[in-house]
Amino acid sequence: MKFVTNILDFLLQQCSAFNFCLCLDTQVFYLLLEFQRMEEGNSSLQSLIPSSGGGGENLGKGNQKREIKQEVKKQLWLAGPLIGVSVLQYSLQVISVMFVGHLGELALSSASLATSFATVTGFSLLLGMGSALDTLCGQAYGANQYRLLGVYMQRAIFVLIIVSIPLSVIWAYMGSILVCMGQDPEISMEAQLYARWMIPSLFAYGALQCNIKFLQAQNNVFPMMLSSGITTLFHILVCWLLVFKSGLGSKGAALSNAISYWINVVLLMLYIKFSPTCRKTWTGLSKEAFREVIDFLRLAIPSAVMVCIEYWSFEMVVLLSGLLPNPKLEMSVLSISPSIFFMVLLFQDLLITIILSTSVNTMWMVYMIPFGLSGALSTRVSNELGGGHPHAARLALYVTFVMTVAVGAAMGLITILVRKVWGCLYSNEEEVVKYISTMMPVLAISNFIDGIQCVLSGTARGCGWQKICAFVNLGAYYGVGIPCAILFAFVFHLRGEGLWLGIICGLLVQVLLLLIITLRTNWEQEAKKARDRVYDSSIPIDMAS
């Protein structure tokens, strides 16, 4: 029971950080009001800030502060629960690995390796494909075509289930793949066993993401935060029973992931079916969900490429760190990165990985702030464009952009201020502590830029720019970021710092290209495209809207 108490303490720490994020965000709108006073004197911002003229959407100078304040409230209403959902879903995998850690080093190594491989080859792909609903459901809801949301969700679930079948085959033979990659055979085969028991979670995860996007498009985010909270608490009990009481061991932890994901799916589906708030958007199963699948894939595949290209580039940094002169030190320090906790175990540097795992969770929370704002922005932009309100969509972008810059600057400053004591919290080795202190400013810059790209990527999802953004990400990370990382680390001998500087170069290129696209956007034209996307569907449309 002491171990379960430690799990609950871990969740409370996550919630404390989550509350800090919300408190920080609620102060930002005062900065927005000050920033608005600079509007007339700063012509470079005119493409983002809604003008005071323009027909039926004239905000009026006297109403601008009120409009900004209302938009901030809308953003926080969405972003807060979205951050909570992300934290709770992330906690499921962490809790499972924590339970497995009490079974021995082999069990922990194999479970962590399997989880990492599953994330790279499965979960990230489904997450990306599901994000196509940010565009489709969001714009349909804004256009008052509520019935389309249910059809889009069913279509997405159908496609993601089909995609999960070949992915499950890859998971089933994970061990052979890992051995071919040069991993330890014993750990690889144990990882394969863990992955096979986790296959049902793959199908549940796809359905869960579709449910979340369906509700998010309707600005109905608190039910999914509640269901995620219930699922996480239940997950602790399920893990304890299956790992320690049933005799399944690590296989029980893998199975508990699947059970918990399916519980979350069932809770959300029951809410969608019986809640009055979803009466217009969920009208039951429809054969129309099996139509226009190719059109959905045209948006879903670029969406997946957007996510996977960025995600895999961070994982590649860890692989490159294994080629440096002191790989244990480099991988230990690079594990502070918010996305690569499990990948470090590919190199069996188990002890330092465990020491730094809490550091990973903390840094991951920094990323969750812009991640939540990005989800809120994609919803706001898609809703307003679908409703034919281009200036409101532009205002949403403006507000979120300034909030992200303000929060990113504050968190970056905190990161730099604690750089000399941060490493001491997790390691007694002087070399590791010193190296972490030199890396913290680099990570602060990385998190700041990554926050901005989160906002711009959220705008892209809301507008339906997934295809062009996929090419942007491909060029930024693999044309600039990874080559620069190799150059800085191995030619200029900057080691781990050089690897991360390369990623920053890729982020800068990505942000600059997305910013250029955003600044050159004709929002009236985007609103027209959104309406055309909704009304071009072969599904019967409510013309009264």
Keywords:
mainly alpha, 79% helix, transmembrane, antiporter activity
Summarize the structure.
The chain is mostly helical and 545 residues long.
Question: Please, could you describe this protein's structure?
Answer:
This is Protein DETOXIFICATION. The protein is mainly alpha-helical and 545 residues long. It has one domain. It is built from 19 helices and no strands. The longest helix has 37 residues. The protein is globular and about 55 Å long.
Major sheet characteristics? none
Please report the distance between the alpha carbons of the first and last residues. Answer: 56 Å
Radius of gyration: 23 Å
Helix content: over 70%
Sequence stretches where pLDDT stays below 50 over 5 or more residues:
24-47, 51-57, 329-333, 335-362
What overall form do the CA principal axes indicate? globular
On the 0 to 100 scale, the average pLDDT is 81
Structural class: mainly alpha
Number of domains: 1
Strand and helix order: HHHHHHHHHHHHHHHHHHH
Q: How many alpha or pi helices? A: 19
Q: Give the strand tally.
A: 0
**Beta-strand level of the residues, as a percent range?**
under 5%
Describe how the helices and strands are arranged.
Elements: H1 2-26, H2 28-37, H3 64-100, H4 105-130, H5 132-142, H6 146-172, H7 174-180, H8 185-217, H9 222-245, H10 250-274, H11 293-321, H12 327-334, H13 350-386, H14 390-417, H15 419-422, H16 430-463, H17 466-491, H18 495-519, H19 523-535
Helix pairs in contact: 1-3, 1-13, 2-3, 2-14, 3-4, 3-9, 3-10, 3-13, 3-14, 4-6, 4-8, 4-11, 5-6, 5-8, 5-13, 6-8, 7-8, 8-10, 9-10, 11-17, 11-18, 13-14, 13-16, 13-19, 14-16, 14-19, 16-18, 17-18
